[in-house]
Amino acid sequence: MPYEFKVVRRVEFSETDMAGIMHFSNYFRFMETAEHGFFRSLGHSIVTRNIETPVGWPRVHAQCDFKQPLHFEDEVEVHLIVVEKRSKALTYLFRLKKLNANPPVEVARGKITVVCVTHIDGKMSACSIPKELADKIDVAPTELVG
């Protein structure tokens, strides 16, 4: 079962600040790119139109530790690893690696927890992850997380 996904992105000029360093908020955008790709690799979308009751995935926890800055045109591998799966929530670990460094180097590590919710009559309520999606996601082996 899938428990990891990798995507490669390049830092765009618009993602940098006046010092030419990627703005911290964009690390979360890179993580979100990996999450969306992970869902697509499972045959789903983060926007669930193909199930009976559409669900959403609000973030209830987000963190990122920065080790080295990224700059315009740096090539970055974002590695998503599922570290926890509960009936209504998923927690991902993200490792961001600068590929154009010699050797490639981890520049940031993040963690995001999302909760599965429904939107009914304008009210958001936590719900179980749809079975057709939950059955496709597993938790990574501990040696991969370490």
- Report the principal-axis shape: globular
Provide a count of the helices.
3
Strand % is: 35-45%
Mind summarizing the main beta sheet?
5 strands, antiparallel
Helical coverage, percent range? 10-25%
Helix/strand structural class: alpha+beta
Radius of gyration: 16 Å
Number of domain modules: 1
Mean pLDDT: 94
Low-confidence runs of at least 5 consecutive residues: none
Give the helix/strand layout.
Layout: E1 4-10, H1 25-41, E2 55-56, E3 59-66, E4 75-85, E5 89-98, E6 105-115, E7 117-120, E8 123-126, H2 131-134, H3 142-145
Antiparallel strand pairs: 1-4, 2-7, 3-6, 4-5, 5-6, 7-8
Describe the structure.
This protein is of the alpha+beta class. The chain has one domain (4-137): Hotdog Thioesterase (Thiol Ester Dehydrase, Chain A). It is built from three helices and eight strands, in the order E-H-E-E-E-E-E-E-E-H-H. The chain has helices at residues 25-41, 131-134, 142-145; strands at residues 4-10, 55-56, 59-66, 75-85, 89-98, 105-115, 117-120, 123-126. The protein has a five-stranded antiparallel β-sheet with strand order 1-4-5-6-3. The chain has a three-stranded antiparallel β-sheet with strand order 2-7-8, with no helix packed on it. A hairpin with a 6-residue loop joins strand 5 (89-98) and strand 6. The longest helix is centred in the N-terminal third of the chain and has 17 residues, at 25-41. The model has no long low-confidence stretch (mean pLDDT 94).
